Amino acid sequence: MRNTLAALALVSVASVALADGRVAATGMATTLRHIEIAGVQEFSGRMLVKPVSAQTMRRLGYNELAIDAKRRQAEVAIAAETVSYIPVVDFYVVNVPKGHTENSYTQELMKTGNYEIVEPDYMVFPTFTPNDPNLGSQWSQTNNQAVNAWDIFRGNEAVIIAITDTGVHKTHEEFNLPNNRFVPGFNSVNNIREVDGGLVQDINGHGTHCAGIAAATGNNGRGVTGVNIEGTKIMPIRVSNSSGGGSSLSALIGGATWAAQNGSRIISTSYSGVQNGSVGSTGTTLRNNFNALWFWAAGNDGGTYNSSDWADVTIVGSISSNNSLSGFSARGLFIDVMAPGDNIFSTIWTSNSNNASYAFLTGTSMACPYAA
């Protein structure tokens, strides 16, 4: 699935147009279009306004009388909306007048030539780094800038990610502390819902590792953090009853379909077999009928594949900590996205482990839930 992300560039100038037509190079950038980013910088209804400095005007040849006159013009124009003044840096805190937006008010003031800077008095927020003790072992969160993304989005209870795998160890500390992260799942081998007794407990460990990559709880003072560190729900879909983890295409397709029918719009499958036509066909049905996105691991054979580029399945290859293609990862035109998959530290379960076990695993199996 080919996705194109468009970025909006902000246009800035480093000069001030004075009322008599001359341009003063201020060395300060004036944003011509102000934008809000939820959780990062949000409009407050106030502006920060700085008149053109006397120093700049002297450099341009203004005499002291003219400088005083322009200064008074600047102050009078904003007097009715002024909330406060910060004298050392010469900034006025000004309300956005009725009938104006932050952008229209900026344009109105700047066209007078009396101001160096007019910009929103943005509400900004502390940058966020979770307190999970093993975050330093998760190179993927730094390289992929997840730490920066968490300032904007950390998860949402409306989002349900289905992990079609060997099950999930639901009592692991990363999934049930401080809040339970699960919605009821399904055993697609026996075709039994979890609420009717279908077994979704991990039988191999692979599924728990994948679930932790996607959504281990962050900032809980324990272990690791997933990509979605809070809120986002996990739907465990067990597709294997074998301790080795082997499944069938029918179990994987049936599990993904049940997940989509029961509220998941993001489905992660870390198995081989993506080249088969039944996968592509099912992906299209899930997308068209349920608006669900199916992510599938590319495979670990290092092969190059230029067919089976299914339009509605997101096929995920692996990168290493140096941001290069992992040697084991399948590659070729069928790949849609690359994600961290080499030496990934996440939650784990074995028959001898407890509710606080972690391990490093490698493969496109790890990259798939990361991308999902």
What does this 3D model show about the protein?
The chain has 372 residues and is an alpha/beta fold. 24% of the residues lie in helices and 23% in strands. It is built from ten helices and 18 strands. The protein has an eight-stranded mixed beta sheet with strand order 11-10-12-9-13-14-15-16, with helices on both faces. The longest helix is centred in the first third of the chain and has 15 residues, at 64-78. It is elongated, with a radius of gyration of 28 Å. The two termini are 13 Å apart.
Strand elements, count: 18
Instruction: Assign an overall shape.
Output: elongated
| Gyration radius from CA atoms, angstroms | 28 Å
Strand order of the largest sheet: 11-10-12-9-13-14-15-16
Largest sheet: 8 strands, mixed
Q: Roughly what percent helix?
A: 10-25%
Q: Give the low-confidence spans.
A: 1-31
